[in-house]
Amino acid sequence: MQLNHYNSTFKKQKFPITLICDNVNNAANIGSLLRISDALGVEELIFCGENLQLSKRMKKTSRSTEKYVSHKVESDILQVVTSLKAKRYFIIALEITDSSTSLDDFTLNTNQPIALIIGNENIGVSEDILKLADEIVHIKMFGENTSMNVVQATSITLYELTKQLQN
Pseudo-torsion of CA 161, 28, 73, 55, nearest 10°? Predict the structure, then answer.
């Protein structure tokens, strides 16, 4: 028998992960990030940037998760990340750089709460924010393209982080 919302036996759980979005502004991506944050037990979701709208399309894509996923909109990501660093969060940026670690080689060795920073759909995580990261991770790519949709990449990364937090 196929399981659904009412008869699944998944254990509800929150992980000490705050997801920070660096100018992610596509409504479908915003809605999908709310949905994946719910599915993978993210503690809080912070959208950073100017003129972000929690629109009708976002709500349709989120499938009502905006009603119960803790989230907020902040204009200044630098202030958000600096504040979390002061609170002793372990800052992880998801970005391909010349010094980033492949996600499959990354081991989470901290008891600190985690802030995962993801970037804008076109330009990624800003350079100023990358400088604040304790770790920069990337997902190995095997095709011609060197990137994937921000929600897909976030899903893969959150899955790996929550898997490691459960061990």
Answer: -150
What is the rounded CA–CA span in Å between residue 143 and residue 136? 21
CA Rg value for the chain: 16
Distance CA(80)–CA(73), nearest Å, equals 10
Look up the CATH number of the domain holding residue 31: 3.40.1280.10
- For residue 129, pLDDT beyond 70: yes
- Confirm whether 110 is domain-assigned: yes
Structure letter (DSSP) for residue 12:
P
- The predicted pLDDT at position 53 comes to 66
* 27 belongs to a structural domain: yes
Give pTM, 2 decimals.
0.93
Does residue 50 fall inside a structural domain?
yes
